[in-house]
Design a protein that fits this description.
Number of helices: 6
Order of helices and strands: HHHHHH
Structural class: mainly alpha
Shape: elongated
Number of strands: 0
Distance between the termini: 35 Å
Radius of gyration: 20 Å
Strand content: under 5%
């Protein structure tokens, strides 16, 4: 896959994934999305501080090392987006496929327009169904899980 496609898929997946603590027990996405969101804010600032302090303490002769440190800090949120993009297009295992179809049928029975997962379903499709389910289903359904 193209690197830019992975980054945009990761960004879309990060915005689609329902940020519900209950899903953190079953999926690593909750923790990865939280860490990536934090890294997108904090890491560029920390990278600039680390590079500037290295230049201040050690002098301009260490400019290549300072740039390397800055690039490392900037790469951390990009790594999170790449992982999320890879995961978004990763095919669902059969157990999640069945559970997603049960969830979509439950939503359809309640009168909510929801398409069942197709033959080539991926985690992004599952995230869409989960987000819709957490917006529409009552808390009692999720407590029963």
């Amino acid at each position: 896959m193209n690197l830019l496609t992975l980054l945009t898929d990761g960004r879309r997946y990060m915005k689609t994934w329902p940020m519900v603590r209950q899903l953190g027990l079953y999926f690593p996405e909750y923790r990865v999305v939280k860490a990536t969101q934090l890294a997108m804010i904090a890491m560029p600032v920390l990278g600039i501080i680390a590079a500037a302090s290295q230049l201040y303490v050690l002098g301009w002769h260490f400019l290549p090392q300072a740039i390397t440190v800055l690039l490392f800090f900037i790469s951390l949120p990009i790594q999170g987006l790449l992982w999320l993009g890879w995961r978004a297009r990763h095919p669902l295992p059969l157990s999640l496929f069945d559970w997603g179809n049960q969830l979509s049928s439950t939503l359809t029975e309640m009168g909510i327009a929801c398409q069942p997962l197709g033959a080539k379903a991926c985690y992004l499709d599952m995230a869409t169904i989960l987000k819709l389910a957490f917006e529409r289903l009552d808390r009692q359904y999720w407590d029963e899980l």
